[in-house]
Amino acid sequence: MVGGEGVTEEAAGVFRLPRDYNTFLWLLKLGGLLNLYFLMTTTRLPSGGADAYIILPAQIFFAVSAYRCFFPVRYEHGVVLHDSILSSIFATRLFATFAEIAWIFLFSRVLRLLNLDHVLWVNALSWLMVAQVVICQGFVWAAILTEQHELYFYEELGWALIFAANTIASAYLYVSIGGLGGRKVLLELNLIFGILYLPFQVIHLRILRADAKKNTGKTGASSASITRRLATGLKRAVLMRNRRTNADSWGGFIGLIWVTGYCATVIPMWVYYVVRVLRPN
Predict the structure, then answer these.
(1) What is the pLDDT of residues 239-268, one digit of tens each?
(2) Residue 16 lies inside a defined structural domain of this protein
(3) Residues 155, 139: contact at Cβ < 8 Å?
(4) Is 205 within 8 Å of 3 (Cβ atoms)?
């Protein structure tokens, strides 16, 4: 998701940071505690008037993000921090599937709530975001089960489309809808994220595309039937655990940015802020 799983070794080598991430990966557990705090806080919100379509997706995201901070994995090559049954590619991806759909559903819900004039194309775009994140899950599952790593390009392209849609809809609502009061800050956050993320994602997609062309036919090549390949991929996802802490195994600088921002800091704090702004009085 969002610039992490599909990071190439070529991209990892662009930035030179400490070559061992053991300390950093352990520090991710602080992000796990932060997510648990957010989870506990949202469970104490007053039930009367609370929007379940905001609260429940946020809680799913916090719970899964905490899990991923405590038991980090990288899908490519089955890289893990802890050689534990809890560090399962299959389990992590299964939980992440629900978390990512919940997260984007929450953001689409925000757009519909702030669309006070009920502009049809804005509502349609918000639902297309949800449809696209489901499609992204298909690509990432296919990449994991078949080891066709070039499929990560299409997953990441889907995330670019999601946040392009979110940014366009937010920009329209920001300039055209009045009476939002303090909720207008949610549109500002959407715009700031889009401005920062989309150029980064364009660069990331170019790197992924170049790597896919270079390695066409090299990954996941097999004469076995698709059923057998999927069965092998599923077994690998359940059982394979390669404990590594070197930087290249974790995606280098881009992997560092992704896992920190997505699981431990920026996105959980953003989701929590959305909940606080939209909480019942």
Answers:
(1) 999 999 998 888 887 788 888 999 999 999
(2) no
(3) yes
(4) no
Name the amino acid, one letter, at 160: A
Helix, strand and coil in the chain, % to nearest 5: 75, 5, 25
Residue type, 84: S
End-to-end CA distance of the chain: 34
CA torsion 125-170-140-71 (nearest 10°) is -140
* Position 224 in a domain: yes
Residue carrying the six token digits 């999601």: 162
For residue 4, being part of any structural domain is answered with no
Within 10 angstroms of residue 47's Cβ, the number of other Cβ atoms is: 8
The two beta strands, 79-80 and 242-243, are: parallel
Number of domains in the chain: 1
DSSP codes joined into one string, 63-130: HHHHHHHHS-EETGGGEESS-STTS-HHHHHHHHHHHHHHHHHHHHHHHHHH-TT--HHHHHHHHHHH
Structural domain includes residue 14: no
Structural domain including 155 reads 29-278
Residues in the chain: 281
- What are the tens digits of pLDDT across the range 141-195? 999 998 888 899 999 999 999 999 999 999 999 999 988 889 999 999 999 999 9
